[in-house]
Amino acid sequence: MSSDTFETYPYETRYWYPHLSPAEAALWHRYVLKNPDAYERVAYDVKVGTIPDFILAQDDTAIRAQAPLYQYKIDVVGFKGDKVDIIELKQGATMRAIGQVKSYRNLYTRDIDARAQGADIIITDILMPDMEHLAEQMGVKIVAI
Q1: Integer angstrom CA distances of residue 25 from 14, 21, 65, 129
Q2: Which residues of 97-126 are buried (b: 16+ CB within 10 A; e: fewer)?
Q3: What are the helix (H) ranges across 6-145?
Q4: How much is the average pLDDT of 66-73?
């Protein structure tokens, strides 16, 4: 897989953010407003992970078209210079979000860009107990917005 498998957009506020739920879009919109120079471009709903063999073995194009449903989706990938940030948007983020964003980084570097360097970021609305400590210990940046 390569970066030509997903579309990038200018980093800016939008009336609609592709593939984000209303709650995720609200978090992201606030983040973009408060951090207008954070990125040059972004990608939404970036698919990573292995498509199961039983889907790939299908001759039926309608069934094969379901392949992306079996992949993981990174909420946002932010690009600035050589930096590639993996971003998870989560209301009331818990420690699950830490594992999620770290796993997405691993799959992104395996599937899309082995040289990608950047931050693993969780953007949330509420800092749940212990999240700042756990995120710091795991090398994840957490932003409450």
Answers
A1: 10, 6, 26, 24
A2: bbebbebbbebbbebbeeebebebbbbbee
A3: 22-34, 53-56, 61-64, 95-111, 131-137
A4: 88
Three-class SS state of 61: helix
pLDDT reported for residue 107: 98
Mean of pLDDT over the chain: 93
Q: What share of the chain is helix, strand, coil (3-state, %, to 5)?
A: 35, 25, 35
| CA pair distance 57, 134, nearest whole angstrom | 41
- Dihedral sign, Cα of residue 24, residue 12, residue 75, residue 84: negative
